[in-house]
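hey can u check if this looks right to u? its 276 residues, i copy pasted from the old doc so theres a chance i mangled smth
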Amino acid sequence: MSQASISFPVLGAWSIDPPNSFVLFGHTFYWYGVIIAFGFLLAVAYCMRRSGEFGIKQDDLLDNLLCAVPMAIIGARAYYVIFYGHYDSFWDMCKIWEGGLAIYGGVIAAVVTVLVVCRVKKMNALALLDLTAFGFLIGQSVGRWGNFMNREAYGRETDVFCRMGLTLDGATVYVHPTFLYESLWNLLGFAGLHILSKKTARKFDGEYFLLYLAWYGLGRFWIEGLRADSLYIGDSGVRVSQLVAGCTCVASLVILAVTLRRKRAHKDLPGANEEK
C-alpha cells in the first residue's frame, strides 16, 4: 500500500498521492524523517520557552536531550525488533531507514535516560519529566503525519464516516485512519495539559507526566485495538502496545490518585499550614 492513493469520502471526491521522499541538492530526503524532525524541533522550542516555569535551566534541558534523543531512537528500534522478530542478521536489525520504530520503546528509553542524567547532574527529574510531557504530546501529534505519508499505521477495514480510502490498481479499501485518531488525541491532550498548567499550579512534581501517561495510555489502548499492523507477544494474540498502554494508564491513575489523597491528608493535618 506504500504507493496507494489516499482519499476521505467525508471530504468528497478529493484524493492525494503524497510522495514518500523528495530530492534536494542531490540528496534524497524522506518525508517521514522530515516530519518527525519538525515535530521534535517544535517540542523542543515549546519546552525551552517554558523551562523556567519548571525550575529547569535551558542548558540542562539541552544536555538531557543530547543524551535522551539517541537513546530514544535505539529504544524505539529495539522495542520493534524484539516483538517483530523476523530478521536474518544483526545488520538487518539495524536498518532503521527501512522502517520499524515503536513509540513506546522510545518513550521508555528516553525516560530512563532522563532519570540517569538527572541523578548524575543532581537535577529534579520529576520536574523535568513534567516539562517533557508537553514535548511528547507535541512530537507524537506531529509525527503521526509521517505515517500518513508512508501509508502506514492505519486500521482494519471499516465503513465509519471518517474512513480513509487506499486505492491501488483501481481497487479501494476503506480503513480506520488510526494515525489521524492518535494525532488528534495527542493534540487534544496537549491543549488540555497546556490550559491546566496555565490555570493551576502543579500539586506535586511528576503530576503532569502522570497525566500524560494516563491520557496517552487511554487513547493508545483504544486505537491500538483498531490497528491492522500491531506487534504481538509471540503467538498469544495479545497486542504488546495495547497491553503496555492499558497498564501505564491504570498505574498512572492509581499513583496520581494516591499521591493527591496523601497531599490533601497532609494539608488537613493540624498545624500543616502554620508558618514554621
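The CA atoms of residues 167 and 178 lie 17 Å apart.
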